[in-house]
Amino acid sequence: CLSGLFDTLLLTLPLFRCTELVQNSNRIPIAGLALLTSANQAQAQTTSNLTGTWYCGGSSSPSYIRQVGSELWELSDAGYQVTSTFNGTVLNGYINGTWADLPKASYTNYGYVSGKVVSATQITLTYTFASAPGVVNTYICNR
């Protein structure tokens, strides 16, 4: 059933991520690798540029996102309450990566982030806590 799917494969980095099976995409689950067809890579390059200042979950504290190709870098700074960062990718409008609290605040959580590009001015982000199993926070982010 996978014949022809692997005509042209591109590896996305970093290699420590796991990719979930997403219906109607050409991604397949392989621990540590995200395998993409050339069609997915082309579509990933046409995703809106997410670089900018975002506000998530009704917070007045900014989240700063930098997009370089399909790679995302983010810093959320709520002062000494919580400061965190994530690194991930945006492919076909879906965001996947890892996040961690930074030592500026007292929190030391970390985990996985997933999300969806809703529009050029709205994304949803879901933070799953590897450091606190069962804890999941979802935010709507606007710019």
Strand arrangement in the largest pleated sheet: 4-5-6-7-8-9-10-11
Q: Outline, from the CA principal axes?
A: globular
Task: Kindly report how far apart the N and C termini lie.
Answer: 42 Å
Tell me roughly what share of residues is in helical segments: under 10%
Largest sheet: 8 strands, antiparallel, barrel
Average predicted local confidence, pLDDT: 76
Radius of gyration computed on alpha carbons: 16 Å
| Number of DSSP helical runs | 1
What is the number of strand segments? 11
Strand residue percentage: over 45%
Please state the structural category. Answer: mainly beta
> Which stretches of 5+ consecutive residues score pLDDT under 50?
1-46
Order of helix and strand elements from N to C terminus: EEEHEEEEEEEE
Topology, pairings included?
Blueprint (H helix, E strand, L loop, with lengths): L8 E3 L17 E2 L2 E5 H8 L6 E5 L5 E7 L2 E7 L5 E9 L2 E8 L8 E10 L2 E8 L6 E7 L1
Kindly list the characteristics that best describe this protein.
11 strands, mainly beta, 1 helix, about 140 residues, disordered N terminus, single chain, 3-stranded antiparallel beta sheet, 8-stranded antiparallel beta barrel
